[in-house]
Amino acid sequence: MPVCDDLLSAIETLDPLPITAQRLIGMLGNDNIPLQNVVDVVENDPAVAANILRMANSPLYGGRFKVERLRDAVVRLGTTALLDIAMGGYLRKLSTKAPLYDLGEDELWLHSAVAGLAVQELSREAKNDVPGSAQIAALVHDIGKLIMVRYRKVHASVIIERCQEKGWSFIEAERDLFGCDHAEIGGAVARAWDFPEAIAHAIAHHHDSPLEEGNATLDAVVAANFVTKTIGVGLGAEGLNLRIDQGCLVRLGVDFDAFCRACARTAARLGDLRKAYGLN
Ligand SMILES: [Fe+2]
Ligand SMILES: [Fe+2]
């Protein structure tokens, strides 16, 4: 389904991404980029470098030892946190109440940040490789919602009513009412920001069911969204009214017990995440 023209032009009104984030996006999505290249980029941005060190020593990521070298801090943080910091709070600054999805301020961002953590926890459990690009894709997987709430001033109850009337999932009602959905728009945002195609594709298709096979980034994002919803973060009006292709877990090599462990560990990190970002 093509993205509506007015929403496509709305993408151009978003502020450009900070330069350090732009430089990192291409690198972090590629598992073969040497760590030193990443360190070189963040070293040149003193504000980002300081925040990386601070966050690496926060309770959310802190290990037994304090890290003082930027290189060690980068390793400890991992892709999602690194990119979030490099984006300079970009995603959080866009935080807004989202009546269309019945999400309060910060809930949309928190849902995305937790999805990033969920990819890390799923990676620990998965028998098959989870690409680094999945963490980035998870962090921005619902970015299309920011555009939707600005340009579709409708309350979530309208969508819920349509779901009840037709027996549809939330995303099906969203498509029917607005001509396109937040996943497709998110994919278009990622392409406008020159994200690697694997990431843009995963964002654009994270509500597909069934999923196309053989795409581990997409599988991991769908599974991470499922973990995040299961532990109740960013449920909003959609709640659990979403279709999940369970094949994503099978392909990742995550069985039921492993999925439960990933949920439990992601939930256990939630308090520290809130603290690290000063949320209640
Ligand atoms: Fe979504
Ligand atoms: Fe989501």
Write the layout of secondary structure elements.
Elements: H1 5-11, H2 19-28, H3 35-43, H4 46-56, H5 70-86, H6 90-93, H7 107-125, H8 133-139, H9 144-151, H10 156-166, H11 170-178, H12 182-192, H13 197-204, H14 216-230, H15 247-252, H16 256-276
The chain binds fe (ii) ion (FE2) (2 copies).
Relevant terms:
280 residues, mainly alpha, Hypothetical protein af1432, binds fe (ii) ion
User: Largest sheet at a glance?
Assistant: none
How many β-strand stretches? 0
Put simply, the count of helices is 16
Q: What is the correct CATH architecture?
A: Orthogonal Bundle
Q: What do we call the CATH topology? A: Hypothetical protein af1432
Task: Describe what you observe in this structure.
- There is one protein chain.
- The chain has 280 residues and is mainly alpha-helical.
- The protein has one domain (5-276): Orthogonal Bundle (Hypothetical protein af1432).
- Helix content is 62%, strand content 0%.
- The chain has 16 helices and no strands.
- The protein has helices spanning 5-11, 19-28, 35-43, 46-56, 70-86, 90-93, 107-125, 133-139, 144-151, 156-166, 170-178, 182-192, 197-204, 216-230, 247-252, 256-276.
- α7 packs antiparallel against α8.
- The longest helix has 21 residues, at 256-276.
- The protein is globular, with a radius of gyration of 18 Å.
- The mean pLDDT is 89.
- Bound molecules: fe (ii) ion (2 copies).
- One fe (ii) ion is lined by residues 111, 141-142, 225.
